[in-house]
Amino acid sequence: MSKSSSFIPIYDFSPSVNANYLKQILPLLVRHNVAANPINYAIWYDYVAESNSSLTRAVNSLIAEQKKFDYETSVDLYKTHICNASLESFEQINRQLHKVIEQATSAINDTYHKAEETNDSFQKKSVILENFSASGGLKTVLQEIIQETKSLALTSQAMQAKLTDANREMEQLREELAQVKQIATTDGLTGLLNRRAFDMTLAEIVESSAPEMTCLSMLDIDHFKRINDTYGHTIGDNVIKYVATLMKKHAEDHHHVARYGGEELAIIMPNTRAERAFQISENIRSAMEASRLQRKNDNQPLGKITLSIGVARLQAGDDSESFLVRADNALYQAKQSGRNKVVPS
Ligand SMILES: Nc1nc2c(ncn2[C@@H]2O[C@H](COP(=O)(O)OP(=O)(O)OP(=O)(O)O)[C@@H](O)[C@H]2O)c(=O)[nH]1
């Protein structure tokens, strides 16, 4: 889906057109037995708006083959036809939706206040005219005008109520899209940023940051295969989750903690000096070394689990790839020199 054929343009329509889309989605969800979750909402919004041809084709062929729209199918549709194609467009949708909402609300508020002002002004004139008995004919005309103005104000009020409803629906849509975006950028196991979000964040930060003040830590769980082989994958997963919580705990609020892939994790540290980045990494390493994890069901200790960490500092002329390679090389050095270490690049 190219940018121009993404589903952004539908948000240029009036709130009533958007509300109409919303009304078409519900019966479709019911007819095809689709759960009303944010992922499906995004899929069927695109489908109804006919703005994403590859998605429309995929949905139509699923309908034709009478396939079930179960969770896996929805995630697959979402990943293939929405998320991968247009993650950036979500940002744009959010901005556009906000603009539409603001413009519509301000337009109707203006109309409403204008009508009220007119009403007030005529009423004042009416009072003045009450004192002039000779101007009976004119008074009647003015009273009619006042009536009309009042009715205009009532119409405006009704219109405002309708717009408020549309406004609410749009806000809800915006929140749902934000949720969809969050799903698209979050690692399911750990709740950290996923690889895609890591890549995007790193590229943005490298582009916008001053060298020397940005650091990157790459972290790998030592002999993780052994943990999996000895205790099974579920415990392996729990160890990854535990490491993720340690990283979140020790990283600063403005740092970006991510799961780079498998048992390799990362922290992008903008506005952070190398000494501080090293210290944070060392805190995580030593906290892990001191942890005594146990199996939940029989309290069997898992033994000492350690981490190897490589830390790199952004240098002038770096792009995200060269920055990442330096951090990865430092991690490799930590592994080669005995593991359970933090090595600066
Ligand atoms: N439980 C679990 N295991 C994973 C996951 N992703 C990757 N792995 C496993 O992680 C292991 C990584 O092993 P290796 O890359 O050989 O390295 P290692 O055993 O950690 O050894 P060193 O890195 O050399 O210390 C493999 O056995 C993968 O199957 C995951 O999400 N969950």
Alpha plus pi helix count: 10
- How far is the N terminus from the C terminus? 40 Å
> What is the CATH fold-level name of the largest domain?
Alpha-Beta Plaits
Give the name of the CATH architecture of the largest domain: 2-Layer Sandwich
Radius of gyration: 30 Å
Classify the beta-strand content into a percent band.
5-15%
Shape: elongated
Q: How many domains, as an integer?
A: 3
* Strand segment tally: 5
Cofactor: Mg(2+)
InterPro entries: Diguanylate_Cyclase, GGDEF_dom, Nucleotide_cyclase, Rev_trsase/Diguanyl_cyclase
Pfam family, one: GGDEF
Organism: Methylomonas koyamae
Description:
The chain has 345 residues and is α+β, with helices and mostly antiparallel strands. The chain has three domains: 15-82, no CATH class; 87-185; 195-344, Alpha-Beta Plaits (2-Layer Sandwich), CATH 3.30.70.270. 65% of the residues lie in helices and 8% in strands. It contains ten helices and five strands, in the order H-H-H-H-H-H-E-H-H-E-E-H-E-H-E. The chain has helices at residues 15-31, 38-49, 53-64, 71-130, 136-185, 195-208, 224-231, 233-250, 274-290, 320-336; strands at residues 215-221, 256-261, 264-269, 307-313, 342-344. The chain has a five-stranded mixed sheet, with helices on both faces. Helix 1 crosses helix 2. The protein is elongated and about 105 Å long. The relative contact order is 0.09. The protein binds guanosine-5'-triphosphate. Residues 220-226, 228, 233, 236-237, 240, 262-263, 335, 339 line the site of guanosine-5'-triphosphate.
